[in-house]
Amino acid sequence: MGGRALRVGVEAGLQVALLGAVLWATGLPFVFPSLGPTAFALVTRSGTAPAREVLGGHLCGLAAGLLAYHALAPGLAITDAIGPLSAGGLRLAASGALSVALTAGAMVRLRAVHGPACATTLIVALGVLPGLREAAVIVAAVAGMYGAHVASRGRRARG
């Protein structure tokens, strides 16, 4: 593995491992699928990513996911057994589509474009992490990852 590839792999893994330790210590879902692409995006960027993009993007996704889920599919989850052509399946599909549409529009409008936030919105809108407690954990996890990214870039610039 080349030097850059090794550095990117180690840094992205450490970003997720840090949150994995918090998950382990608290039992709360501090690791969820959209953090992998966020870690990769952060460590492959040449400078520090703007907070507006990373934090703002995930907040757009979170808000859109909560709105879509609670409007269209409360009580359902993509992990449940869903029959073909079922009303529940249709409600979840609509929730997912609406959440991505709202997230994409909000991110562009607010100049907070961060692609992994479209995964966050689906995680919420499809009932995987649909509650306010989970929303607080998502915000804390993204903020923690971003903070570690900024600290890492600052340390590297000084040393």
Automatic annotation (TrEMBL):
<dbReference type="Pfam" id="PF04982">
    <property type="entry name" value="TM_HPP"/>
</dbReference>
<keyword id="KW-0812">Transmembrane</keyword>
<protein>
    <recommendedName>
        <fullName>HPP transmembrane region domain-containing protein</fullName>
    </recommendedName>
</protein>
<feature type="transmembrane region" description="Helical">
    <location>
        <begin position="12"/>
        <end position="35"/>
    </location>
</feature>
<dbReference type="InterPro" id="IPR058581">
    <property type="entry name" value="TM_HPP"/>
</dbReference>
<feature type="transmembrane region" description="Helical">
    <location>
        <begin position="122"/>
        <end position="148"/>
    </location>
</feature>
<feature type="transmembrane region" description="Helical">
    <location>
        <begin position="90"/>
        <end position="110"/>
    </location>
</feature>
<keyword id="KW-0472">Membrane</keyword>
<feature type="domain" description="HPP transmembrane region">
    <location>
        <begin position="6"/>
        <end position="128"/>
    </location>
</feature>
<feature type="transmembrane region" description="Helical">
    <location>
        <begin position="55"/>
        <end position="78"/>
    </location>
</feature>
<keyword id="KW-1133">Transmembrane helix</keyword>
